Amino acid sequence: MDTRTILPDRIEVNPSFMKQLKEDYERFAEEGLPKEVEAYILDHYKMDVSSTYAGHFIRNPFGIASGQLSTNIRQIENGIEDGLGFIILKTVISQDPRGDSGMDAWKVNAPKMVVEPITSKRGEEGYTVTWKGRGWHKSFEEYLTLMEQSLELWKTSNTPVIPSCKFHLPTEEEDGFNVAEYQYTLNKLYEVWEKVWGDIPLTLEKDFSPTLAGSSLAKSQQMILWWVTHVPEQIKGLMGARGINLGIKLMNAMFDDAFQLEVLETAAKSKADYLVCFNRLFDPDKEFEGKQGVAYGGYDLSDRNLKIIHQYNKKHGKQQWVKQPLSATGNIESGKMMVEYALAGCENGQIHSYFQWPASEYAMKQGTKVEKSLHELFFNPEKGLLVTMRYLEEKELLAPKNGVLYFKDICQHSKINQ
Q1: 313-370, pLDDT tens digit by residue?
Q2: What secondary structure does DSSP assign to 349-412, as a single string?
Q3: How far apart are CA 92 and CA 95, in angstroms?
Q4: Which helix (H) or strand (E) holds 281?
Q5: Distance CA 337, CA 303 (A)
Q6: Between β-strands 274-277 and 326-329, what pairing exists: parallel, antiparallel or unpaired?
Q7: Smallest Cα–Cα separation from 64: which of 327, 381, 326, 359?
Q8: Percent of the chain with pLDDT over 70
Q9: Are 195 and 148 in contact (CB under 8 A)?
Q10: Residue pLDDT, tens place only, 57-80
Q11: Peptide bond connecting 278 to the previous residue in cis, omega within 30 degrees of 0
Q12: Whole-prediction pTM
């Protein structure tokens, strides 16, 4: 068994269960998914696939990661209608009251995306999505409008939609933070949040992006660790009594695994309330549309992410796992891969590339890419979520409660993770 993963390559379960699953898989490929697919799964399979994101209830663990699929209100409406568990908005770039931004270079209008096959170092075939774009390139006011509309949709649908932001980062410790930029951005985000959710603490994802990892800003290991420690501290301090439920989306730094483990250890000690592990890898040599250096995914990404989280868990022991809730991201191309991340302690999965794979990779003949993806993520008889949860039950690694298997129980720190 590969040290990066826990599950076997081939999942084998009771034949009668497999027969039922294959029948549903083939039927839904023709007819489309049931309207309330989670209720169907609970009723027919006695499995509860709900979970949480940063403490918020989500109907299933599959969500859209911040990026090109969450830039306008129609995408948000469609994502909720299609059955996503949650959505992370495109990352806005912080600014001061004059509109100046220390991270202005990340406001790039380059939406073109190309889906490309990619082979990992281990020979695993997958896909990666390549584009030049970085963060939100429209006005800050337009982002605030999108955020308010999205929060209203969350309130009516019970599908969390979370804002994401990239803040100024000093290149030297003595430079300090651009406090005016942090304060103005946080105040404006909170004003919108408060309008919809009242005095409930703002939930916000702070992004350390793959392009940041490949930039000149991230050449110093010392500064990366300083950011991971002090950025949450800065944000928490400025929010004060208003409160903030702060997530940190950690980058895959362009250093060895030992340093990446140190990044996770540092984040686990920080004031962040939850962590997202980890952003895409960065290839400084690949060129795309005239730009040198691009982020990429595929199995190299999930291999590294899982390896680092498992190393942390093994090093620190069951009683000292990452104290914050974990959100997974990186090549979640199956329900089985989601379970691999859950076995490492992750409560949900942020997906971007898999929602854009070629049509030939989905069995469902109708519906949107998200609906086709969810069909595979849930019902694929070889690597879907349901067959993998059943496998864990048959191996006595996941026990039912009152006759029901709970996805959330996989994430708990029990013998299943040892």
Answers
A1: 988 876 556 778 999 999 999 999 999 999 999 999 999 999 999 999 999 999 999 9
A2: EEESGGGGS-GGG----SS-HHHHHHHHHHH-TTT-HHHHHHHHHHTTSS--BTTBEEHHHHTS
A3: 9
A4: strand 281-288
A5: 10
A6: parallel
A7: 327
A8: 92
A9: yes
A10: 999 999 999 998 999 999 999 999
A11: yes
A12: 0.94
In order of 118, 234, 306, the CA distances from 265 in angstroms are 30, 19, 15
Cα first-last separation, the chain: 14
60 neighbors 51 (Cβ within 8 angstroms): yes
Which pair of tokens denotes residue 317?
């022991």
Say how far apart CA 33 and CA 27 lie, in whole Å: 9
CB-based burial label for 271 (10 Å; 0-12, 13-18, 19+):
middle
What b/e sequence results for 379-392 when a residue is b if at least 16 CB atoms lie within 10 Å of its CB, and e otherwise? bbbbbbbbbbbbbb
Q: What is the Cα 329 distance to its own chain's centre?
A: 4
Nearest to 280 by CA among 349, 341, 217, 209: 209
Q: Taking every pair of C-alpha atoms in the chain, what is the biggest distance, in angstroms?
A: 65
Nearest to 372 by CA among 348, 351, 355, 353: 355
Collect all residues with Cβ–Cβ distance below 8 Å to 23 and sequence separation of at least 6: none
Distances from the Cα of 331 to the Cα of 219, 249, 293, 357, 379, angstroms: 26, 15, 20, 11, 18
Structure token digits, residue 128: 């990666």
Tokens of 382: 């070889």
Between β-strands 114-119 and 405-406, what pairing exists: parallel, antiparallel or unpaired?
unpaired
Q: Do 328 and 350 contact (CB within 8 A), yes or no?
A: yes
Q: Compute the distance between CA of residue 54 and CA of residue 160 in angstroms, rounded to an integer.
A: 10
What does the block give as tokens for 199? 């005095």
| 3-class SS of residue 165 | strand
- Asked whether 268 and 322 are in contact (CB, 8 A), the reply is yes
What is the spatial distance between Cα 353 and Cα 357, in angstroms, rounded to a whole number?
7
Can you give the length of the chain in residues? 418
- What would the CATH number be for the domain defined by 15-417? 3.20.20.70
- What is the amino acid identity at position 19? K
Task: With beta carbons less than 8 A apart as the criterion, state whether 362 and 375 touch.
Answer: yes
Tokens of 266: 């540092």
Tokens of 215: 């930039």
Q: How many CA atoms lie within 13 A of 132 on its CB side?
A: 11
Q: Look at phi and psi of residue 62 and say left if phi exceeds 0, alpha if psi is from -120 to 50, else beta.
A: beta
**Contacts (Cβ under 8 Å, ≥6 apart) of 135:** 90, 91, 92, 93, 103, 106, 107, 108, 166, 207, 209
